[in-house]
Amino acid sequence: MENRSVFDCQSAIESEFNEPLRAVIAGFIPLGMTRVEVAETLEVNPRSLRTFCERSDIHFPLRSTGRNERIRETRRTHGRARMLELGGRRQCLTAWAEEYRLNVKTLHKRLRTRTLADALR
């Protein structure tokens, strides 16, 4: 992550996007990007971006559904997920919970004392 301040890069970013910096940053919000993701995209320090957003009255949503889904998918595909098999199908804990419409924490608790088949009932 870059240590460049958004204030130092303001003119370069505005000339690259051909828009005022406020419009550039606000344009990322409908894409479901978080402030940190925008800072990474613009290659600026996230703290300076937060300061700029506060001064410019730009508000990022507290919870981004797109971000949550990206995190969930990353966990599934990068080996951190707990894989469980039932009936010849192998899925992560989150996928089983979604399929059976259970809360992941509930399923996790049930698995402490039960088999997967019993926990999904």
Note down, in words, how this protein is organized:
The protein is mainly alpha-helical. The chain folds into two domains: 10-56, no CATH class; 65-119, no CATH class. Helix content is 55%, strand content 7%. It contains eight helices and two strands. It has helices at residues 10-17, 21-28, 35-42, 46-56, 65-77, 93-99, 104-110, 116-119; strands at 83-86, 89-92. Strands 1-2 form a two-stranded antiparallel sheet. Strand 1 (83-86) and strand 2 (89-92) form a beta hairpin. The chain is elongated, with a radius of gyration of 21 Å. It starts with 9 loop residues before the first helix and ends with a helix. The model has no long low-confidence stretch (mean pLDDT 85).
Short description:
The chain is mainly alpha-helical and 121 residues long. Helices cover 55% and strands 7% of the residues. The mean pLDDT is 85.
